[in-house]
Amino acid sequence: MGVFAIHILNALLYSSVLFLIAGGLSLIYGVMRILNLAHGNLYALGAFVTAWAIGLALSAGVPNFVLFLLLPAGAIAAAVAGAVIERTLLRPFYKRPEEYQLLMTFGLLMILEDLIRLVWGPNPLSATSVYASLGSISIAGDRYPAYNLVIIAVGIVAAVFLWAFIYRTRFGVFLRATSQDKRMASALGVNVNRIYIQAFTLGCFMAGLGGAIVVPSQSAVLGMGVDALVLAFIVVVIGGLGSLEGALAGALIVGVVREAGITLFPEIELAVLYLIAAFVLLVRPAGLFGRAGT
Amino acid sequence: MNDTVAVARTGAMWRILAWVVLPALLLLVAPFVIDPFQTLTLSYGLIAAIGALGFNLLLGYTGLLSFGHSAFWGGGAYTVAFMVKYLKIASMELFLAGSVLASAILSALFGFVCVRYTRIFFGILTLALSQVLWSLAFKFFWVTGGTDGLRVPTPTLVGMAPTNDKMEFLAHQYYYYVLAVFALCVFLMWVIVHSPFGKALQAIRDNETRAEFIGIRIRRYRLIAFVISGIFTGVAGALWAPLNGLASPDVLVWTFSGEIVFMTVLGGFRTFVGPIVGAIAFTYLKTYAVGFTVYWQLLLGTVLVVLVLALPTGIMGAIERLASRMKKAR
Asked: Does the CB of A8 have a partner CB in chain B at under 8 Å?
């Protein structure tokens, strides 16, 4: 029973991080129709910035609770990077074929990958003291790291906030209108350029937040972005590109399958995920929650 | 009247001279002029050109952007490695035949699934399927060698055993072998894109509805294009494996597909020679960037971003624009 509960918690843990990454990816695609291949690198950027900030704070000898306040640093860094990227590199491409947008973000992927190496060097960065400071709790007789529950909580809170943001605020209405029909929204007085930069920044913020909360439990390493991106792809393909509900459902499915896969069929765990994605695309090309015809 | 025909004919002759005879001569004498390292790089470039040529049948001529061509390149390379490991074969001709067969099956399988979609979904689907292969190669290490990959020794060429000096062999015999296969592939692709079939693909690219209206069976044509494209890229993978000495998962991972896209766009995907020029240029660029700095990805990424921003038609597009401007100036 305890083992089962821990498996469930681990699945939720994966799902939370995946939702943050894939939710941002999906939001960006939904509003801007851009598949951001560099999205994983923004997640990595969040992880590196947070680990770096915590490392600095530790050497300055600040108390432990301050370290928690530093966690969002990575998310903010990723959001700033996103705002700059949208304004300078993506804006010229909205009227060009999507092949060029893909290539542009692929170039960004390569650049960001090496910029991270340039700034923080090739060695992994970790922030385990935050992880360790919470200790562990007992679940039906088994020890479980308490920090993992923080990650799950952040994932849930992020999902709720995002939902409220998009379905209960004026900004959300603009966002959805732009996503449904950009020209019509523009004609009705929505400043589409501003919505674009806000959506992109928000998406990058989520990816950065994913990286920031994950870094205390696992080190920030080079290449983590590309790995995460591919998983996020699977999530959005299963859930439906551009749908947040889809990203949530997809993240849960991928989280559960990964956790089951690691224990039951480790060799083909990744292959199974890709095959699920391919199968969903075949049966429902728009994904489980995707809108048909878009 | 006769004059214009004559002018057109000399024009065509000049063009053949400039685009076929001259490069062929340069490529033929190259190993005697440049040092072996350069010849090897050139071999890599020619091999990449075969792959990019195949890729461009989809992107340039059919209008489908595949982000999964690493599957066919890696498929070709691993076919060779498996033939060495399990069948104890050493003949390059058999390697090529095997990889053609393997990549035909693989691309038929992938194509059957993927050609139902176009645009972004086609790209994601090809990416997802290629990643299935990558993860299998990665995880089934007792079959595929995992991240270490599988060793591929130098093969026999047309029944001739390789010489003892491996560098000498790769820089001469193997180079000419690659060149011959390259020439054959260029010729075949030229015939394909200028055949009625090739024209039909371009019609599909330009206007799907119209193409369907004049009776082109779009999905079948796309599937055939996909398979041909996969076979060319598979052949490139098969030629690459002995040169690299190793078939490793690096060529199966999706970022390698991105490199194939990169080289094609670098050369210009709207022209026939674009991918060839782009592949050779990319190979040199990457070789020197990797030798020059550990931050080669930063360099290449910047090149890609600048390229997409400033030169979307690639090297060939830039040359064409320059040529037409010069003509106007005259």
From this structure: no
